[in-house]
Amino acid sequence: MESTVDVLGIGNAIVDVLSNVEDSFLEERGIVKGSMNLIDENQARDLYAALGPGIEVSGGSVANSIAGISSLGGTGAFIGMVKDDQLGDVFRHDITSAGVNFPTPPSNAGPETARSIILITPDGERTMNTFLGACVLLGPDQIDEDLVRSASITYLEGFLWDPEEAKKAFKKATAIASDAGRDVSLSLSDSFCVDRHRDSFRDLISSDVDILFANEDEIKSLYQVSSFDDAMQAARQDCKLAVLTRSAAGSVIVTADEVHVVEAVKIDSVVDTTGAGDLFAAGFLTGYTMGKDNASCARLGALCASEIISHIGARPRTSLKALAEENGLL
Amino acid sequence: MESTVDVLGIGNAIVDVLSNVEDSFLEERGIVKGSMNLIDENQARDLYAALGPGIEVSGGSVANSIAGISSLGGTGAFIGMVKDDQLGDVFRHDITSAGVNFPTPPSNAGPETARSIILITPDGERTMNTFLGACVLLGPDQIDEDLVRSASITYLEGFLWDPEEAKKAFKKATAIASDAGRDVSLSLSDSFCVDRHRDSFRDLISSDVDILFANEDEIKSLYQVSSFDDAMQAARQDCKLAVLTRSAAGSVIVTADEVHVVEAVKIDSVVDTTGAGDLFAAGFLTGYTMGKDNASCARLGALCASEIISHIGARPRTSLKALAEENGLL
User: Fold this and answer.
1) Does chain B have fewer CB atoms within 10 Å around its N or its C terminus?
2) Which residues of chain A have a CB within 8 Å of the CB of B67?
3) Which domains are seen in chain B, by residue range?
């Protein structure tokens, strides 16, 4: 069967609340800069109360990637749970108006739509504090089998390993995609997330994952090594294809046979790094579905990441397709 | 009685939804660029559906001004109606975390918290489409008499003339402030708003308004003249003190005896003009409560306006007090 969707993303459906803080704000609360922390509703309320004015903008790691794929001209679909509330409406509006098929109906009971309170320090680094809300309601029932079979790649976020039912949904989707001869891609999401679920991730990666995305901290955590080079060597043994991102130091793409080291795209001023990895994945996966070689995929990923860090928010502000064409990458 | 609040703002409590559009989007819908249009819930839904991804950020004209006054180190309070819903929570968080006293309890029934869909064209101009929602519930009952008496200036937005009950609240507040020997300030808000309520505004201005804020279109509409100079001459006759803003052309401040022509503060790149007039008012009123001369007040207003148009959203991103101190204006 011919695929009708380039990439189906399955992930947490989250509205980001962005607020600028000084480093001391993190230190006083023992929050590790650059991490993603799960918080409950009360913690979300307390943290929000301690912050200055914010900006609300749709987020969610894989959702950001799928919006980016759509902006590049690819066909994207997304499965994720929001509630039938105002923030749920915002999430739905933003992803569908970006051209993404988002068929999952909202819940009409239970916790509110998820939000991630993202603290932006003066260096542009972001620290996430996520109340999963309605995301915990994502389960196997939301996985549309035909949609999974129709997608060239099913792309999953490691964060789905946190809510129990979402993990089941994740496994169901992985099995359907593998049986249909489709590719499965996974983002490790966060080094602390890897800490929580290392063994499961290792099993999954060696059996079912065709394309792994990880940043430097995540891949070191996965293999419990202290140097990037050690992690990279382990990934070459273990992964069919691993895409390792290193912020301003660029990316390294490894398979058993190939290693590519690709530069980051320099920009004048980093405003907000939220979504850099998500948009790198958007570019890489779009190139991959078009049959481009791995180094070209990485260059497209780097270009998309450079767009997203030049402004507030993790969804593209311009046509990534036009940007890529201007830069001779599409 | 000594005043304990510098400026009490009474206005619509609105969350802005910002989205970038081409000029053709406005033309196809017959929307006049730069205007504020009132829309109902269905129109808001249809317009939102036609838009690309957005950003949500607290707004409301006078609310923006009061947040700016607080950022300048002044004591600000705000009266306005939100519903007890997610966007209402966002509005309350943003204004209280900016240091503003916002005592008005939310409604727990009736229309949702107001939103203004702001269409930003490539020239940085903004066109507002406002669903007033819970704002129509603002009435005389919400006017805390002691709070009005405690404020050196009560600042009102012309937009309050649109919902019938808000107009009554506006009149009640004006009467209390005048009786207490306090100053009343009014922003004309929008030239179409002036068209709708010209006679009432003219009556109010010649009787009760101590400080009038208007841009070029608004003051020309008020006096139904075609040149700025004619409008300015009329304002000198009619107003105790009129602050007339002219975007990049600066501002003109007039009383019966004085005329000051003050330059705009130039910035490299205008990102979003939303809130320029609101923040000009914040600077001017703060200077006024400190006893500064009118030209100095206007210079402080121009500086605050320059900060707000350098980024998305109509609330300050930096300490305006620190910015004003750096520029020798505080």
Assistant:
1) N
2) 53
3) 5-12+66-111+136-326 (3.40.1190.20)
pLDDT tens digits for range B204-246: 999 999 999 999 999 999 999 999 999 999 999 999 999 999 9
Question: Best residue in B90, B112, B279, B307 to probe A by mutation, most A CBs within 10 Å?
Answer: B90
pLDDT band at A183 (very low <50, low <70, confident <90, very high): very high
> How many Cα atoms are found within 13 Å in the side-chain-facing hemisphere of B20?
11
pLDDT single digits (tens) A246-266: 999 999 999 999 999 999 999
Between CA A47 and CA B173, with CA B275 as vertex, the angle to 5 degrees is 85
Measure in Å the smallest separation between the Cα of A51 and chain B Cα atoms: 7
pLDDT in tens, B108-152: 999 999 999 999 998 878 899 999 999 999 999 999 999 999 999
Single out the residue of A211, A177, A233 nearest to residue A3, CA to CA. Answer: A177
Q: Which of 261-320 (A) contact B at CB < 8 A?
A: 312-313, 315, 317
Residues in chain B: 330
Take residue B25 and report the two structure tokens written for it: 């989007």
Question: Is some CB atom of chain A closer than 8 A to the CB atom of B94?
Answer: yes
Q: How far apart, in whole angstroms, are the C-alpha atoms of residue A79 and residue A77?
A: 7
- Could you give the CA distance from residue B302 to residue B223 in angstroms, rounded to a whole number? 25
Rounded CA-CA distance A265/A263 in Å is 6
Residue A23 clears pLDDT 80, i.e. is over it: yes
Q: ipTM score here?
A: 0.80
Mean pLDDT of chain B: 95
User: Under the phi-then-psi rule, with left for phi > 0, alpha for psi from -120 to 50, and beta for the rest, what region is B92?
Assistant: alpha
- Nearest CA to A241 among A225, A224, A227, A260? A260
In angstroms, what CA-CA distances link A238 with A212, A224, A241, A254, B34? Answer: 10, 14, 9, 10, 58
